Automatic annotation (TrEMBL):
Name recorded for this polypeptide: Pca regulon regulatory protein
Domain called HTH iclR-type: residue spans: 4-65
UniProt organism field: Acinetobacter stercoris
PROSITE patterns the UniProt entry points to: HTH_ICLR
Listed SMART domains: HTH_ICLR
Length: 214
């Protein structure tokens, strides 16, 4: 089926504006996306006209609150208590925490939390994607699906242990510890620099995962 190029470009523009909220002019957006400025102007004008984008200082582009119902619709697929669970886990573990979910062949970061006592923090950005089976988060999500023939050794080990651990995969120095969320294609985990106390974090993670079942 042939895609609608204008619609696709409109979503690319919307995503870029969201990523650089209030920072880009139309000219800068066109340069960043390597698109004709006239095309960008028309797309932006349409988004402004229907209320999803505005120019608060008459120059820089920003999303409006009209985007919120779209997010709320998606958020219904996430456990309602997930943010509270992540924040409690972050304070208990003194680590950055994240909830990821499967979407197609990828896992996507849908919620994060950072504890309050650290000046330097590592975190997934919301919406970050990487393949299922890659890094601790992707391996833990893979464990929520039935085992397949010739499965990756890291996934087999994670199934046996009940958790996935990775280091220096998505970023040098970054470590992650994730556990599958029962009955959901999701995983919850802690992240840090260089090391994680697995024995201390694992019971907290398992309890957090159970809390997300309901």
């Amino acid at each position: 089926m042939q895609s609608l190029q204008t619609l696709a470009r409109g979503f690319v523009v919307l995503e870029s504006i969201a990523k650089h909220q209030g920072q880009l002019t139309i000219a800068q957006l066109a340069q960043q996306l390597d698109m004709n400025r006239t095309v960008i102007y028309r797309l932006v004008h349409t988004l402004v006209e229907i209320g999803y984008v505005h120019l608060p200082d008459q120059q820089h582009l920003a999303l409006t609150a009209k985007i919120l119902p779209l997010y709320r619709g998606f958020e219904q697929s996430i456990p309602a208590q997930s943010q509270t669970v992540l924040e409690q886990l972050s304070e208990q573990s003194q680590a950055v925490t994240a909830l990821v979910m499967a979407e197609g062949n990828e896992c996507v970061v849908v919620k994060t939390a950072c504890h309050s006592s650290s000046f330097l923090q590592l975190s997934y950005r919301l919406g970050t994607r990487h393949p299922i089976g890659v890094a601790a988060a992707g391996i833990a999500v893979a464990c929520t699906y039935p085992a397949v023939e010739n499965e990756n050794a890291e996934i087999q080990l994670a199934r046996k242990q009940g958790y996935a651990f990775s280091q220096n995969v998505l970023q040098i120095g970054a470590v992650g510890l994730f556990v599958p969320v029962p009955n959901r294609h999701m995983a919850i985990g802690t992240m840090g620099f260089n090391e994680i106390e697995i024995d201390q974090h694992l019971p907290l993670l398992k309890q957090a995962a159970l809390n997300l079942m309901f």
